[in-house]
Amino acid sequence: MGASAAVLGHPAEAIAMLVNILSDMGEELPAGSFVMSGGITEAIAVQPGDSIIARFQELGSVSMRFVE
Questions:
Q1: Residue 21 has pLDDT above 90, yes or no
Q2: CA angle 18–42–37, rounded 5-degree value
Q3: Cα torsion at 55, 6, 11, 20 (round to 10°)?
C-alpha cells in the first residue's frame, strides 16, 4: 500500500527539491521535462512463481507473474 504523500509529504516537494539541487549546480530543468517524483512504496523482492497486482485508484490495475 502506498500514498503519494510518502514522497517528502507531497510529490511536488520532490520536484521542488530536484529543481533547487539543479539550481545549486548551475543547471535547470527544461520546460516540458517528464519527471517522476519517486517511488511511493518500498521495493519488494520477487521470486519465480510470485504474482503481483498493482491497483491504482480511479485508473485500474495491472498484474504480472514472474517465471523462471
A1: yes
A2: 20
A3: -150
